[in-house]
Amino acid sequence: MKQMNKFRGDMLDMDVVSDNIIWRACKPVSAVERDGAVILEVPFQAQTDPKFGSDTSIPRENHTLVIRAYGNAIIRASIAFDGKIPGDDGILLEWHPSLKPEPLKVIKTDTGWDILDSAQTLRMRINTADQPIKFWSDQIPAPAESFEGSVFPDGKVEVPFMAWDTFTPTHLESISLGYVTEKGQPYKSLFSFHAAHDEKFAGTGERFSKMDLSGKTFILENEDASGVNSRRAYKNVPFYISSRPYGVFMNTSAHIRLSLADISTRAAQGMIEDNVMDLFIIGGGSIERILYNYRRITGFPRNVPLWSYGTWMSRMTYFSADETLKIAKRLRDEDYPCDVIHLDTGWFRTDWKCEWEFSPERFPDPVGYMKKMREMGYRISLWQLPTISKDTLHYETATKNRYLAPKLTSEGDASNFGKVEYGGTIDFSNPEAVKWYQGLLENLLNMGAAAIKTDFGEKIGADNNYYGMPYKTLHNLYALLYQKAAFEATEKVYGKGQSVIWARAGWAGCQRYPVHWGGDCACTWDGLAGSLRGGLHIGLSGFAFWSHDIPGFHGLPNFMNSWPANDLYVRWTQFGVFTSHMRYHGTSPREPYEYPEVAPIVRKWLKLRYALIPYIYDEGIKATESGYPVLRALVFHHDDDPVCWNIDDQFYFGENLLVAPVINSEGIRDVYLPEGQWTDLWTGEIINGPVMLKNVVSPLERIPVYAKTGSKIRVYPYKVQYTDEMDLSKSVDLVFDSTFKGLSSSVLGEVTGL
Q1: What's the DSSP call for residue 167?
Q2: Dmax (CA) of the chain
Q3: Are the beta carbons of 42 and 177 closer than 8 angstroms?
């Protein structure tokens, strides 16, 4: 991204001299009702280089802006500069049955048009009157005509277009509505809403930055982030939330530049690399309701099986059936609860060369192996990726039938970890390729595999001829198509509510196919902090189920051979207990017994995890109905508390628990308790919020955890080693009232030894 201190360069990535033309929306010339929508005819004026003034020598171009409403809290504004107005059948959309189109009508006023719904509620206002100006000098021309208006998505909150973001008439910082042409063809769309000086922002996907995203610009383009401490992201989501409060969902898979009060500090603006712009402006009165309404458009998460909430054990990689059987037995013998053994890159004939078939040398009897593991209470998860090497079993078939997208030029650079030359990437825009891929997975699932890890969905070759759409359309969408295919294959074998995948990439709609994890974090304190931030942000972007690699994926300073420190291993485990899903994974051994100095502490915390599974399961059911994340930023429930907008190292775990992980070797941190009464999990002390607790000391066995005073959660009062030993009907309620004297005096203390 260039730093030119000019809209043209900073927002549009254009050189000062270019054959591109920027077109700015002017005042609508007509407004009519049609099929429950309001149709605005909007003229656009070309802008002249180098100062960006209006060029009246170029005739205006007229385009249609379609305004639709859904329910009482969503307004949709769609405009096609060279294409078709989107309908209700897009791949990103999965409409909730309760969300119905709301007919609109338009009324002419003295200053323009008002758009009302059937309840006579104002949903949008268009201003066509001239701005009042007292001229005292003719040195500066009058401002160019601009599109002015405000959206009232829920009839209450006003979301104004940023019409007059100028220093002089020829120096723009944002454009309320616009587009860019190259050689006469529109290829970029522009929008801008006003941002107040104290407005805050959240959402946009998996961000590893601070909680409040104001003053930042993001490129919504999925990338292998190679960790959790950069501005790259595996999971970008074309959706943001404002503290005003409102949300904007950009219904597109195109790359987007989104500036949240940054390039212009008084504008939230986007540049969509597409000639069609489809915006859903979402109200609801709170972050909770805005997220709920967003999911009513893009889909709610599917339910996941009980066993998925247990411990997942993995490393990169296990290499044989014998090796994992020994590990599985030792976990049982030493009383570490565990439900899943994940086989990463080493279950093929050659590491990393995905063939969707077990190596006959490493796994001579895969069906018998998975049956034996199942008898021990374990399920098997299998890694794979969507790229195929030239010297593997399926390359010829995939190439011959065009399941792989043909190269246009040279070899592409689809995601690759090792020194493996890939021959191509499965083209999920081709329905026949999807069927073929699902057949490969179904074979493995019918053999006994329980879950598929859909790795490397964030990057595809740019120089390929894809079946259904061009690269720029498919790139971000690829994750959704990939995960949908894998989830549907799993569901076909195991049924609804019993299916789960393990996915890394993401876009709008991917939340429908859980679970997603945070990517390749470093085994460091900042890796832990970055992972938590990613989890909080993805939760504010529509994803309910989320996990991460415990205790970080790769070592430092040596990628493969540096082991995590003992205290980091414990602290990351404690954090993992309070996330929807819990998986150990990394480049060095991750089994607790490999860390003997702290293994007894880890064992107690894993027992706590299993004791909490009834509560986690209940919160998971709620997530499928509300879409609310299991791991929630404090601002999710306290968006009117300015302190919460700056807290990115604490979270709600479900509805009733507040968790503050320890992210340092000192075991000391500050803890903020928002409004309400809070019960200390360890002591039973009741504390009134809001309050900042300074320098809270936590020995290695503890982290700060608080429950809402008066709340109750379901817990399991018996010791188990895996979830098949659980009968949730035998769960009991743990009540956090005056009778609660701390965890050690409760049933949790009896089960865990904490």
Answers
A1: S
A2: 89
A3: yes
Q: Which residues are catalytic?
A: 455, 458, 520
Closest CA to 69 of 12, 118, 135, 22: 118
Q: pLDDT by residue (tens digit) across 52-85?
A: 678 888 999 999 999 999 999 999 999 999 889 9
Whose tokens are 């059911």? That residue is: 621
pLDDT tens, position by position, 200-237 = 999 999 999 999 999 999 999 999 999 999 999 999 99
Cβ-based neighbour number of residue 19 at 10 Å: 10
The answer to whether residues 202 and 241 touch, using CB atoms and an 8 Å cutoff, is yes
Give me the CATH code for the 637-752 domain, please.
2.60.40.1180
The CATH homologous superfamily for domain 337-496 is Glycosidases (3.20.20.80)
Cα R_g (the chain), whole angstroms: 27
Q: In this structure, what token pair is assigned to residue 574?
A: 């404690």
The percentage of residues in the chain with a pLDDT greater than 90, rounded to a whole number, is 87
CB 662 within 8 A of CB 574: yes
Show Cβ contacts of residue 549 under 8 Å, excluding neighbours closer than 6 positions: 517, 518, 519, 520, 521, 531, 583, 584, 585, 586
- Assign 117 to helix, strand or coil: strand
**pTM for the full model?**
0.97
Cα gap 570→577, rounded to integer Å = 11
Please tell me the distance from the alpha carbon of residue 509 to that of residue 541, in angstroms, as a whole number.
10
Residues 6 or more apart whose Cβ sits within 8 Å of residue 432: 401, 402, 403
Q: Name the residue ranges covered by the structural domains of the chain.
A: 7-199+243-298, 337-496, 637-752
Q: Which of 92, 498, 452, 454 is nearest to 303 (CA)?
A: 498
What is d(CA 609, CA 690) in angstroms, rounded to the nearest whole number?
A: 28
d(CA 115, CA 72): 13
Instruction: Please state the φ and ψ torsions of residue 113, each to the nearest 5 degrees.
Output: -140, 145
CB 616, CB 344: distance < 8 Å: no
User: 414 pLDDT exceeds 60?
Assistant: no
- Listing DSSP states for 684-751 in one string gives --EEEEEEEEEEEE--TT---EEEETT-EEEE--S--SSGGG--GGG-EEEE-STT---GGGSHHHHH
333-349: pLDDT as tens digits:
999 999 999 999 999 99
CATH of 7-199+243-298, one of 3.30.420.40, 3.90.228.20, 2.60.40.1760, 3.40.50.1000: 2.60.40.1760
Provide the 8-state DSSP code for 506.
B
